[in-house]
């Protein structure tokens, strides 16, 4: 089968930073689905792993990729949730070979039924960011879905990226929170408003003053999706007493003492935790993705696909990695077709 992989951690401008390969078609384990991959999307984690996890001498080339949408080709002996022919979408596991291949193995407990109203490309944009945003909002920050009156605000730092694009929608459509997003360019600010943000401020300008101007000097819930180390002093200033701060990126330092006087809490979100440790609630990601699928088909959520490239090959994946590394992309970058 066709696949795209790498053997050395190289700048994406290098021609062999990602290469086309032909590898053996994998056989499913007891709880595995073998999926014929129709579309994939690229996330910041793809670029970070490429640069930080070089295969050791003698190891096979590493196949990246997490988001995928496709058709179940075969199932393991213990599979109960899916059958061959089912259309699915999912975000995979960081501990297994990735989705940048014609066929891919994934545990059924982290797979959802693809939204019927979306193409494979549109569906591939959703899994990783939907899981991350859902877990951050409902599991880590502890927000309860529903329209019960709630006078709190949620600040989404980096609202135009993949996770922010879903988080804005979930918070606006499934809760009564006031949603404040940050974006620095006119086009990204417009994107956040389109997705439902009540207010948009510029994270390249002092945030405390902008929040005061819109009547939210202190914010109870903050999602740090990008450049947390840079924004952390402002976060400590604007977070409300007993507030909650959840982050997904990788600051080299994070001084929890800055939040002590406010008894504010810090929460990490990593959507790979459940599949990596095979936690007892691992199947929550299957249920979550099925909920997202239903919300899409009912018109509550929309795909965040913004850039579509075809076919799936090394040259196009290098192009997609470049777009992600520029930190100027809006929404999701998707590749489809082999």
TrEMBL record:
The keyword tRNA processing does not apply. Belongs to the zinc-containing alcohol dehydrogenase family. Quinone oxidoreductase subfamily. CDD domains: AL_MDR. This is Zinc-type alcohol dehydrogenase-like protein. Residues 16-335 form the Enoyl reductase (ER) domain. Keywords: Metal-binding, NADP, Oxidoreductase, Zinc. Pfam families: ADH_N (PF08240), ADH_zinc_N_2 (PF13602). GO terms for molecular function: oxidoreductase activity; zinc ion binding. The keyword Chloroplast does not apply. The lineage of its organism: Bacteria, Pseudomonadati, Pseudomonadota, Alphaproteobacteria, Hyphomicrobiales.
């Amino acid at each position: 089968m066709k696949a795209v992989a790498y053997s050395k951690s190289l700048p994406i401008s290098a021609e062999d930073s990602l290469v086309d390969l032909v590898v053996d078609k994998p056989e499913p384990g007891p709880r595995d689905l073998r999926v014929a991959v129709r579309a994939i999307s690229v996330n910041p984690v793809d670029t970070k792993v490429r640069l930080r996890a070089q295969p050791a001498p003698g190891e096979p080339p590493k196949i990246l990729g997490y988001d995928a949408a496709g058709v179940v080709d075969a199932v393991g002996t213990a599979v109960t949730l899916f059958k061959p022919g089912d259309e699915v979408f999912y975000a995979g596991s960081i501990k297994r070979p990735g989705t940048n291949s014609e066929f891919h193995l994934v545990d059924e407990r982290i797979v959802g039924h693809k939204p019927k109203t979306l193409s494979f490309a549109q569906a591939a944009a959703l899994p990783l960011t939907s899981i991350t945003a859902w877990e951050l909002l409902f599991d880590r920050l502890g927000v309860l879905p529903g329209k019960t009156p709630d006078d709190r605000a949620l600040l989404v730092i980096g609202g135009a990226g993949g996770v922010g694009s879903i988080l804005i929608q979930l918070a606006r459509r499934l809760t009564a929170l006031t949603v404040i997003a940050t974006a620095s360019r006119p086009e990204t600010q417009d994107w956040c408003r389109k997705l439902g943000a009540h207010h948009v401020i510029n994270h390249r300008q002092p945030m405390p003053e902008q929040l005061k101007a819109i009547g939210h000097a202190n914010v109870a819930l903050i999602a740090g999706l990008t450049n947390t180390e840079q924004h952390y002093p402002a976060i400590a200033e604007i977070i409300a007493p007993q507030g909650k701060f959840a982050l997904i990126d990788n600051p080299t330092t994070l001084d929890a003492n800055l939040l002590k006087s406010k008894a504010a809490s810090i929460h990490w979100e990593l959507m790979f935790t459940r599949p990596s440790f095979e936690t007892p609630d691992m199947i929550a990601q299957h249920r979550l993705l099925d909920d997202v699928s239903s919300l899409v088909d009912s018109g509550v959520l929309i795909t965040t696909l913004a850039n579509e490239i075809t076919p799936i090959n090394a040259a196009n994946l290098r192009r997609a990695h470049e777009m992600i590394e520029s930190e100027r992309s809006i929404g999701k970058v998707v590749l489809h077709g082999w």
